[in-house]
Design goal:
The protein is mainly α. About 80% of the residues lie in helices and about 0% in strands. It has 23 helices and no strands. It starts with a helix and ends in a 10-residue tail after the last helix.
Length: about 450
Amino acid sequence: MPALWVAALLASASTAPRSLSECDSAIRSHPGDNAAYACFLRLAHSWDRGREPVQRHLERWQRDHPDDLLVQLWLGILADANSQADVAVRLLTPVADAFRVRGMDGSEVLARAELAKVLCHNGRRSEAEPQLSRLETAAERSSDPELQATALFGVATCARKDHDHGRAIALYTRARTLVESAPASVRTEQLSTQILDGLGSALSDSGRHAEAFAVFLVESEKIRGDPFQLAIARHRLASQAVNLADADELGWDEVDRRIQESLDTERMLRGAYWPANVTRIVHAARLGPSSEALAELDASLAFWRPRAAWGVLTALRVRAKFLSDLDPAHPAEALREAEESLALARSTGNHWNTGMGLLVRSYVRWRSGDRPGGISDALATLDELDRLRDFQADHLVRAWTSSETNFAYPLVAGWLLDPGHGESAPGDLERAFQSMERHRARVLLETLVSARIAPGTTVAA
């Protein structure tokens, strides 16, 4: 293989590899170099034959070269990309320990960061804790900014899954600064887009949608030769566009353009991958209660059921609301889907999804005339959203998170005061007043905290 081609592969990810043989040549020419092995992940993201042949090829390589720890590392990373969490954990756990024994700090950091991310994303936080500790220890042994950024990315991802938005934003921001100071390489390009994706998502989690949109825009402009990562960025932009339009900060024509751009990117992907199947949920929400929207949600559910709970519970929530809108007098199917979504949310411990699940079930009950059930779920929704807000250690992030959920309080109060859905009960007026008082207290807190924001507290894109 020409030496100049290898140098180009290791220096830039702008040109995607075209075959398995190219990646084989890269690792033969540069044994022990993770940048060469990263060729397989880039090929899996861009190849017209899809990911499965790449995974099978690496599995054969591992059988033929059982002492090659790096192939096991990248098999684990590819398994995670394929939503095979158990396979990824099985591969990454022993190889991370082997890297530690051999003093391979860089590879250990890669393995533990990926392993911690997989565990945290799949609700296995207690298993992630020792990996995070060892990850930070391995990174501290190195002065390499790329490795330190990789470690921070892993810790930040778990902080985000713990709903500690302020800590996640701070960690992603530090990681972004570090990776931008590292020498350019395949790995730093990949890591930079991953960090931007995490940072934008954490900003969105805390209600800072304009900043999130700006970060995702930077991410999309950085991506070269990786249609899967581009699909992720375009899905993120479509989702943020909806949030900005809801706040009258963006036109709905731009929302529809971003949604279509995200869906069109699916044609660049060889196989069914998650970005398009999340955008289908957003698209269905834009369509409103209709057979076309239900078909979009059914397609998304078919994709998510064997893969991840969060895609299922989100699609089910929208589907339950639309079924209730289309036939409020017959709530059985809508209630089943609302309850499945709520059960999945509770199993993941996610306060936002639990609150939204309760709110949708409350809506279905109100619409069907079950006023007592609707009241019970509505008040439980407010309790869950208060827990989410109180979980934030940072006062400013607490205010941002509060602003993201403020809509629920006047909504619940309006339901309590509405005589059109079942007979009013004693105490409904008092409950409505208490809901609005909780809302007023939140708004006052946000005003006070916002007045104390110092210059430089926002995250620039």
